[in-house]
Amino acid sequence: MKGRVLTILLIEDDRIEIMKLKRVLAQSALKHHLIEAKNGEEALHILEDKSALPDIILLDLNMPKINGIEFLKILKADAMLKYIPTIILTTSSNHNDVKQCYEIGIAGYVLKPLKYEDYVNKITNLLNYWSLNELIHM
Asked: Tens digits of per-residue pLDDT, 120-134?
């Protein structure tokens, strides 16, 4: 079963993590479109253009300027942006982080695995899942 091509906003400050995701996307059968933001502040600026919103957001929690949880609170308070599925992609397995993110309204919480093969499997499965979902476009 083939899904649709996604526009993905990746909010990540680690260049190695960005390169890893780009490598997975390059190997994907679906040629998803990636938009990059180095922090929450940059992402909010990108999201100001309501005519070109991403299908999903992949969000790291530990970032400079506006951290992931602060970004989530701003995102979910916006009448249009709150419908964008936001998936946390982080190294933090802290129970309080997980709980707080779900309370704010995330669509998923994925831990970045250490082994590259595990990372590829997780990201591929995640993107396949969201490419098959019905998404709200405002």
From this structure: 999 999 999 999 888
DSSP secondary structure letters along 46-107: HHT-GGG--SEEEE-SS-SSS-HHHHHHHHHTSTTGGGS-EEEEES---HHHHHHHHHHT-S
Q: Which amino acid is at 65?
A: K
Query: Which phi and psi (to 5°) does residue 62 adopt?
Result: -95, 95
Model pLDDT for residues 14-52, shown as the tens digit of each residue: 999 999 999 999 998 779 999 999 999 999 999 999 889
User: What number is the average pLDDT over the span 67-75?
Assistant: 94
Interatomic CA distance for residues 85 and 1, integer angstroms: 21
pTM: 0.94
3-class state of residue 41 by DSSP: helix
Contact 136, 83 (CB under 8 A): yes
CA distance 96 to 109: 12
Q: Give the C-alpha separation, 124 to 21, whole Å.
A: 10
CA 81 remoteness from chain centre: 13
